[in-house]
Every structure is written in structure tokens, then in C-alpha cells.
Inverse folding.
């Protein structure tokens, strides 16, 4: 990976982290996502499951919906999704359905990851669409925000 691509990935991952920090303010699990097309964000969201009382309100799902609305097309070709945590199986499925060609994520999710940890949906050769995947971008920062959030919840005696 070239230095320029790494710098760009880090820049956009910082924007996804901004979304994750907004989730903390809403007492949501701090995961953030942005979708970039032609050097501009066309979708940005954080987890909103508690706020919306919706189990599908993951950051990736909401960002995909925003991005599709912003370009008036469900096909998110020529985009990159940046997300602070490895997408789950549900989100990986939505990424494939949206035809997003590239996914960049920060922290791995060993208990629920659908990209590399538990499953490898985005690169499965049996499917008609596959993504280029870059993992580990700002992984320490992306993981730290989650660790701190859950540590504070445990300290308060919450799930």
C-alpha cells in the first residue's frame, strides 16, 4: 500500500472515529462509518440501535442508506466504506448488496466479524460481488474507544 493511500485511509478513518465519538454521547456502542465517493463523504453515521430501537441500526447500514439516497441509486459503485469496527454478517451482506467495491476497517471483531474474524463474506469467491478489504487502519484507536466504552459500562454495572 502506498503512503498516499495509507494517509487517505487514515484521514477518512478519523472521520469515521468522529462518528463513533458521537455515538458515545448518545450512549450507543461507539462504532462510526463514512462512505466516500470522489473525495467527499456521501454517507456518515454511528450506531443508533438504542436510539431508534432498531437492531439493524448499525453505523454501516445507516451510512449505506444515506449514501444511496445522496446519489439516488442503490448501487454504491466507486465508493469506499470506512468503519471503525469490522462489519458483522448483516452489514457485510448489505455491503455486498450495495456493490461497495472497497471496505476499510479499524478494529477486528473476534466475536462477530463477518469480514475476516468469523466469516469472510466480502471476499467469498462463491458470491457474484466481492470487495477489496483493508483492515487495521488506526486499529488501536478504533479498538480503544470500544474498550473504554465497555469498561465504563461494566464499572457502572450495566450490560
Amino acid at each position: 500500500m502506498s503512503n498516499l493511500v495509507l494517509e487517505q485511509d487514515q484521514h477518512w478513518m478519523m472521520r469515521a472515529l468522529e462518528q463513533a465519538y458521537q455515538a458515545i454521547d448518545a450512549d450507543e456502542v461507539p462504532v462510526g462509518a463514512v462512505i466516500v465517493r470522489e473525495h467527499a463523504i456521501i454517507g456518515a453515521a454511528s450506531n443508533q440501535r438504542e436510539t431508534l430501537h432498531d437492531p439493524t441500526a448499525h453505523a454501516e447500514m445507516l451510512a449505506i442508506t444515506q449514501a444511496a439516497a445522496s446519489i439516488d441509486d442503490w448501487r454504491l459503485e466507486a465508493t469506499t466504506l470506512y468503519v471503525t469496527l469490522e462489519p458483522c454478517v448483516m452489514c457485510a451482506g448489505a455491503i455486498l448488496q450495495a456493490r461497495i467495491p472497497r471496505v476499510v476497517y479499524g478494529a477486528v471483531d473476534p466475536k462477530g466479524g463477518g469480514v475476516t474474524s468469523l466469516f469472510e463474506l466480502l471476499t467469498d469467491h462463491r458470491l457474484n460481488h466481492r470487495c477489496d478489504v483493508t483492515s487495521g487502519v488506526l486499529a488501536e484507536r478504533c479498538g480503544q474507544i470500544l474498550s473504554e466504552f465497555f469498561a465504563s459500562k461494566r464499572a457502572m454495572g450495566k450490560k
